């Protein structure tokens, strides 16, 4: 068999089921191998950022990697922004990047570029495959690297002669080390802190936002009175009725500083100390005040849930509180605003919904409104590289075909990877895309003010404006095969959302704000 | 003034007129500076690949750089593919990349990444600005580096504290070295070759495809009987009535090997020896047979036109042939095929048209049909990173507002950077986009066959298919503000093209092949 077939066969044997592909000439043997091997399904994206973002969403929901299949340096480059987000999300992703035949690179053909230099910033594991005979083993190592908790991005560059060369067969699985567990000394040290009675905030991130970890955290809060927060941009968080109501760490640095001003101990579970998203004059990077002491309970790569359970046991926090009551909020009426839009989603969202929130300045009211909704999964933009929402929702829908997905999407960010809609249509995915059409980069209007430009000039206004011409999202969605409609009132968005979420297959709703 | 203002003021003083921008928070002071300074016009792209591709097209037509304004590592990454193409095109481009405040990077905020590693593969000049006081000088050096013949990509990373810090004023221009001229020894050496009477092929690339260089080449061919060819993927080539009819170096390696099999001397003017675009089993990288000798007359960074004129003088090639006659081809009728589509463009194209050809497998018939058309400029995809056509046409139209532009565009490639259409609509650019809708990645079907998969399986077919669902380009164009229509016959495309090219402003024609 070819090296390509040995690689795909290895991936299939190790449980890989999906390959988000945008292939080119150098990947033809890998494409052919998808037909030789059963079990790995190729899903076409019309732009590489769709493929990498979909792999991120898939990895968040499945806790195992999908493959991406990308074309040389420039094809990989088109996928970097969403790999950056995947890296920040700790998502397991395995990139296969076709390259020129190893003997051809020296000729500097037009598509040659330094793939290693491009890949290193977003890859925790990176290898240029050297021989067809070793390719299966390379693939097994890439999959193991990506799968190691909490998950990361592995990139395997496959020269085309390595893909088409002769290999003996697939590789066997590598044993995965279990996640490191937190030792008793650290547990006991944190236990002393939370028992102190001082104002304490327990900040959860990464796997600390899964159900088991949250339930342990709720017991700790019940016992000690500490406040429970989630990180600002969770990769994946279980939420809703029956789970604890977590507060959310704010976005702007001065808000975090103010919040932590009344906190004496900050317990970190699956998350690092909060830092400013951007640097501003007169504002520090580090947001923890000097009289607030940070305590690292568990790193993202450790077993966060077990650490929280051990901590709960150490302080004899036996009783689990009831969690959020199941409350169906009323249906909003009247004008369409971020507040009524958020209320509309909360009013109609079905149990098991996966919400991918890249709604930017239109998003927070929904988060606040939905803590008591039916149990659901919440995902957000982890790395700040916009254009992640539509692909991530696409991947999540492929990962969980039995669950509806809502892509809650800002219009400016949505334009980066709108090709995702076509993949949703092709695959018949149950994704409802809700476009928050405020027709501007509103966050930049806010940031201009923060930068000392309260009244932007003509150029600054133009460079933050999306209204000339207005983007017709209904037209875009329809053109890419997704049934689409526009709504201009809260009442209408409630009706449209309810219908779209109930019907299978993709839908798009452009909500004019 | 701020560092940002000193930088933009410097750029304006050095003749920079356009900034293709997709800014974020870290670029707000640079955006504000565009309002402080007159002369640099911000043009918004809704995705960074639009900005970098537009800067490429602008640079090709203006022979001076535009700025791009990009947001940290991920924003830069979204522009890499078209910077790769710009690098291969020798286009002058100056990227300004906002970064976190220098003191904030150590905190590893979500958007932090290794921008240098990402930028190096596509940047011939790369600098991280260190102080507001030096930023203007950094900018002047970037502009000088990008402008040095034949043009290249310069990237200046601007930490936000450098942008907002205090600067004293703009920098003065740096003196540009004139291009190196080819010395008499090399001219005389090549003169002996072309006088030999042996079968000789003169291959022109880069600035060797401008009018002056071509006219000198035509005199050499007239005198010696050598054949004149252009490189396979010219960045910018003047063509049509009055200019010599150049043949075009073929794409597939076996075609080049066959062509050169009958050639004894290959003269290279502004171009390197041809190499295979991709490596295939049993096919060499280097396509020049052993009994064909390459002679480098002029490198791209040398004065190619002068070298050709000196060579013409050295062989006393005084008389310039008449060049292509002005022939208006007949209008095709009947079925729409790549041949009739190419004939349709050739039949109606006005004098001065700029053609950006990213039509891939649908493109060659047009090239062959248009040698005798009214004088026009032809541009092609230089680096193989698809998604360059629509942005490049956008930039060319901004560079040459008095000339109509045709974006002759494959459907698969067009999807990568379709956001360009919105910028065309916003700026009222005179671009006609002609989509060759064959609804597949046809080149990959061909390459599958070359890879030994003559009958692709279900997955290989699906991964090269764009028909399920069909992309509605009329819907996409309309949704982004561009008047759009669909044609299904040669007669109809002639009528639509003629109308669209005559009317100002952008148009889109989806030609169903």
What does this entry look like structurally?
Two copies of one chain form a homodimer. Chain A has helices spanning 3-13, 28-36, 48-62, 72-78, 80-89, 115-119, 132-147, 160-164, 184-195, 211-224, 253-261, 304-314, 338-348, 364-369, 389-399, 411-414, 420-427, 442-450, 458-462, 473-479, 490-502; strands at 18-21, 41-44, 66-71, 93-99, 125-128, 153-159, 200-204, 227-230, 237-239, 247-248, 265-269, 293-298, 354-358, 376-380, 405-410, 431-437, 484-487, 507-512. Chain A has 513 residues and is α/β, with parallel strands linked by helices. Chain A folds into three domains: 3-164, Thiamin diphosphate (ThDP)-binding fold, Pyr/PP domains (Rossmann fold); 184-314, TPP-binding domain (Rossmann fold); 338-512, Thiamin diphosphate (ThDP)-binding fold, Pyr/PP domains (Rossmann fold, 3-Layer(aba) Sandwich), CATH 3.40.50. The first copy, chain A, has a seven-stranded mixed sheet with strand order 9-14-13-15-16-18-17, with helices on both faces. Chain A has a six-stranded parallel sheet with strand order 2-1-3-4-6-5, with helices on both faces. In chain A, strand 1, helix 2 and strand 2 (41-44) form a beta-alpha-beta unit. In chain A, helix 1 crosses helix 2 (28-36), helix 3 (48-62) runs parallel beside helix 5 (80-89) and helix 9 packs across helix 12 (304-314). Chain A is globular. The model of chain A has no long low-confidence stretch (mean pLDDT 97).
């Amino acid at each position: 068999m070819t090296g390509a077939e040995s690689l795909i066969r290895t991936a299939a044997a190790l449980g890989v089921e999906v390959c988000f592909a945008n292939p080119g000439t150098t990947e033809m043997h890998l494409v052919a191998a998808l037909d030789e091997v059963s079990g790995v399904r190729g899903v076409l994206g019309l732009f590489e950022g769709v493929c990498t973002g979909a792999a991120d969403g898939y990895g968040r929901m499945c806790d195992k990697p999908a493959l991406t299949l990308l074309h040389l340096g420039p094809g990989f480059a088109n996928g970097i922004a969403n790999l950056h987000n995947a890296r920040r999300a700790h998502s397991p992703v395995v990139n296969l990047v076709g390259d020129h035949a190893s003997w051809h690179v020296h000729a500097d053909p037009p598509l040659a570029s330094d793939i290693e230099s491009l890949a290193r910033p977003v890859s925790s594991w990176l290898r240029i495959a050297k021989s067809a005979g070793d390719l299966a083993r390379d693939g097994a190592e890439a999959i193991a690297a990506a799968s190691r908790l909490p998950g990361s991005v592995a990139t395997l560059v496959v020269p085309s002669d390595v893909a088409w060369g002769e290999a003996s067969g697939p590789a066997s699985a590598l044993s995965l080390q279990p996640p490191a567990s937190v030792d008793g000394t650290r547990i006991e040290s944190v236990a002393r802190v939370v028992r102190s009675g001082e104002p304490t905030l327990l900040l959860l991130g990464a796997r600390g936002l899964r159900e088991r970890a949250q339930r342990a955290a709720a017991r700790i809060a019940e016992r000690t009175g500490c406040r429970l927060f989630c990180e600002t941009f969770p990769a994946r968080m279980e939420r809703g009725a029956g789970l604890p109501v977590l507060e959310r760490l704010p976005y702007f640095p001065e808000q975090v500083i103010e919040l932590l001003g009344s906190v004496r101990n900050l317990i970190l579970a699956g998350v690092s100390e909060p830092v400013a998203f951007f640097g501003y004059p007169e504002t520090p990077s580090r947001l923890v005040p000097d009289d607030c002491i940070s305590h690292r309970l568990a790193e993202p790569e450790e077993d966060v849930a077990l650490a929280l359970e051990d901590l709960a046991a150490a302080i004899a926090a036996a009783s689990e509180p009831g969690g959020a009551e199941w409350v169906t909020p009323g249906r909003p009426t009247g004008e369409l605003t971020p507040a009524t839009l958020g209320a509309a989603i909360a009013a109609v969202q079905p149990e098991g919904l996966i919400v991918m929130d890249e709604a930017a300045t239109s998003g927070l009211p929904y988060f606040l409104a939905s803590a008591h909704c039916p149990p659901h999964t919440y995902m957000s933009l982890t790395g700040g590289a916009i254009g992640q929402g539509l692909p991530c929702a696409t991947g999540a829908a492929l990962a969980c075909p039995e669950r509806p997905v809502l892509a809650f999407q800002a219009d400016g960010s949505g334009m980066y990877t709108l090709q995702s809609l076509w993949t949703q249509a092709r695959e018949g995915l149950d994704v409802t895309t809700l476009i928050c059409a405020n027709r501007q980069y509103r966050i930049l209007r806010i940031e201009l003010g923060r930068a000392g430009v309260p009244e932007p000039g003509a150029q600054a206004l133009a460079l933050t404006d999306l209204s000339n011409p207005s983007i017709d999202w209904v037209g875009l969605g329809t053109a890419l095969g997704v049934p689409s409609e526009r709504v201009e009132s809260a009442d209408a968005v409630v009706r449209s959302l309810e219908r779209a979420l109930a019907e299978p297959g993709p839908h798009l709703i452009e909500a004019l704000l």
